[in-house]
Design brief:
about 100 residues, mainly alpha, two-stranded antiparallel ribbon, 4 helices, 2 strands
């Protein structure tokens, strides 16, 4: 990371990359969305930032962010099979 600047309640982070890598960061909106979502994924996964906040930053709905992480092969929900079964049983009881 080369520099950080605060402006308008936002932090701008800039870094240098070698010229031969510039093609990886082309002005492609879908690709940029995925790159930024990937940047935040470890913090979402560790519970340091909510998926709702990341979705807000990206300008998308939270469910779309979950879908995006799923498309990239990244688990949003990190439940064991037993935890999932217990949650399903609880949901079934609540629904009646």
């Amino acid at each position: 990371m080369q520099s950080m600047a605060v402006e308008n309640n936002r932090v701008r982070i800039e870094f240098d990359i070698p010229p031969y890598m510039i093609h990886l960061f082309e002005e492609n909106e879908d690709l940029m969305l995925k790159q930024i979502a990937l940047l935040f994924y470890p913090y979402v996964h560790d519970g340091k930032i909510s998926s709702g906040k990341v979705a807000e930053i990206l300008g998308i709905h939270k469910l779309d962010l979950w879908d995006l992480y799923g498309e990239l092969g990244l688990p949003y929900f990190d439940l064991t099979e037993e935890e999932l079964e217990k949650d399903l049983q609880t949901l079934t009881k609540l629904i009646g």
